[in-house]
Amino acid sequence: MTEFVFRPAGVAALDARLEAAGLLDPAMEEVGRAVAEAAQGLAGGGPVLLLAGSGANGGDALVAARYLAGWGAEVRVLAAPSRHALTRLNRERLAAFGVEVGELTPGAVTREAWGSVVLVDGLLGTGFQPPLRLELAAVVEAVNAARGAGTRVLAIDLPSGLDATSAVPPGESVRADVTVAPVGLKPALLFGEAATRAGEVRVAALALPPDWAAGEAWATRPDDAAVAALLPVRRADAHKGTAGDVWIVGGAPGMVGAAALAGLGALRAGAGRVTLHSGAEVPLVTPELMVRRHGDPGGWLAGTGERPDAVAVGMGLGPGAAGLARTVLGWGLPTVLDADALQPELAGAGHDRCVWTPHPGEAARLLGVGTAEVTRDPLTAARGLQERFGGVVVLKGGPSVIAHPGGRWVSRGGHPGMASAGMGDTLAGVIAALLGQGLSAADAALAGVRLHARAGERAGIRHGYGLTATDVSAQLGGAWLDLTGGAGRGC
Ligand SMILES: NC(=O)C1=CN([C@@H]2O[C@H](COP(=O)(O)OP(=O)(O)OC[C@H]3O[C@@H](n4cnc5c(N)ncnc54)[C@H](O)[C@@H]3O)[C@@H](O)[C@H]2O)[C@@H](O)CC1
Ligand SMILES: [K+]
């Protein structure tokens, strides 16, 4: 399923629409039921302790308690006083069900957690404004102590104490084993240290008019079926001239491997013909790559009338890369700009057929901010880059973000072993190959990132953290077949 990613403002806007349509009560009912089902699955018939804060997150917990009680589970409930109308209503409904609700204090949490198999965290969701107030900080501490003693923790929407928009927790927060996120994900569930505190994340879809969620979402996380639909299908009479002529412009003395890896990535992603243009002698990593050495690559590019179907420029190119990149951008061809071609002076030089592929350090250089600012909120950073540089931006990371003029995508998958030099060079080649096969810049970026990640997952099974960019390239063909379900023959 393709998932939506919301910021708090989107959640609040969706809430307002639900309220106006008289659908907020049924929505909370759906969320509470989904939470109850997940808690029941985790508890395996054991007692469940539910903690309800003062907002709608707490209301979700109170609904979940009612369902669990109705199914015959032993429930213990502690709740904060609330002025939220629906949360209060659900507390009354729970009382009518005969379930007692205790006062939410750190001591009560410690006492009631004793013997509870599962603790449901409905303290704070997207309405949390850091920093955590003292009385709740002590409750969060008690929750984490209970988890340390063996109680499994299920967070509603996000672990309480996380800022929904940030990869960096503002301080201590609940540490969850499972998070059930209503309607869609929040950035904190996807990125950085915050995501590690959420455990396994499950989205609980709500029955909504289809355009409501899409209209309020800040990004989407496409599934593999959506990505596979972007990949080209060849005719039986395809030949190397129809599969894309790709140039790799990169490599300087001491940095030739980067260009070679990009070339290999392009070949393995189906390019019909790949030529490396370099000012240095590039090693023959595979005989299928063509290598052309130029004494003055910039002069040659400026003068040549030859044109490929797609270009990747920058990998290992060294100083002067921005000038070469400007020349290539001037051709208006499908182009990937990577590594040394990612220079602030190229702001505004992008066009709708180009893809910029910075990692967070390069993104920070392009934006003129610190790397921490980029990694704290990659979705906003990627959008800022796209607006400043034009075209499409792939902000690499785990997960990568793709920003295009119509919105933002968050990629899926990958493997921690991909944290090694050369992976970005391979990705640049993969995206160039897809551009050369006729994909738009946005589609090539999304499909390229997912193909690369899937290849990394395959290579990771064999090599663990020791996998190299060459290992990933070798798995690109298999990754393509995985995504397309074995398609790929002529039709
Ligand atoms: N449209 C949606 O996506 C839906 C959202 N729902 C739930 O609604 C939640 C958002 O509800 P609310 O906007 O009521 O917000 P929350 O329930 O997240 O929290 C708001 C409450 O937290 C308190 N609070 C805020 N900052 C605090 C701090 N620093 N220290 C201590 N207390 C603090 C506030 O006083 C307020 O009472 C979501 O996280 C989700 O669980 C669901 O109920 C239904 C559908
Ligand atoms: K929560």
Pick out its properties.
491 residues, alpha/beta, Rossmann fold, UDP-N-acetylmuramoyl-L-alanine:D-glutamate ligase, 2 domains, nine-stranded mixed sheet, seven-stranded parallel sheet, 18 strands, 15% strand, binds ligand NAX, binds potassium ion, Bifunctional NAD(P)H-hydrate repair enzyme, multifunctional enzyme, potassium, metal-binding, ADP-dependent NAD(P)H-hydrate dehydratase activity
Q: Helix and strand layout, with pairings?
A:
Layout: E1 3-5, H1 8-20, H2 24-43, E2 48-52, H3 56-70, E3 75-79, H4 85-96, E4 101-103, H5 106-113, E5 118-122, H6 134-148, E6 152-156, E7 178-182, H7 192-196, E8 200-204, H8 210-216, E9 219-221, H9 224-228, E10 245-249, H10 256-268, E11 273-278, E12 290-293, H11 297-303, E13 310-313, H12 321-330, E14 335-337, E15 354-356, H13 360-367, H14 371-376, H15 378-389, E16 392-395, E17 401-404, E18 407-410, H16 423-436, H17 441-463, H18 469-474, H19 476-484
Parallel strand pairs: 2-3, 2-5, 3-4, 5-6, 6-7, 7-8, 10-11, 10-13, 11-12, 13-14, 14-15, 15-16
Antiparallel strand pairs: 1-9, 16-17, 17-18
The structure holds ligand NAX and potassium ion.
Binding site for K(+): 57, 121, 160
GO molecular function: ADP-dependent NAD(P)H-hydrate dehydratase activity; ATP binding; metal ion binding; NAD(P)HX epimerase activity
Cofactor: Mg(2+); K(+)
Account of the 3D structure:
The chain is 42% helix and 15% strand. It is of the alpha/beta class and 491 residues long. It has helices at 8-20, 24-43, 56-70, 85-96, 106-113, 134-148, 192-196, 210-216, 224-228, 256-268, 297-303, 321-330, 360-367, 371-376, 378-389, 423-436, 441-463, 469-474, 476-484, and strands spanning 3-5, 48-52, 75-79, 101-103, 118-122, 152-156, 178-182, 200-204, 219-221, 245-249, 273-278, 290-293, 310-313, 335-337, 354-356, 392-395, 401-404, 407-410. Helix 2 (24-43) crosses helix 3 and helix 13 (360-367) crosses helix 15. The longest helix has 23 residues, at 441-463. The strands form three sheets. The chain has a nine-stranded mixed β-sheet, with helices on both faces. The structure holds ligand NAX and potassium ion. Ligand NAX binds next to helix 1, helix 2 and helix 3. Potassium ion is lined by residues 57, 121-125, 155-158, 160. Its cofactor is Mg(2+); K(+). This is Bifunctional NAD(P)H-hydrate repair enzyme. Residues 11-214 form the YjeF N-terminal domain.
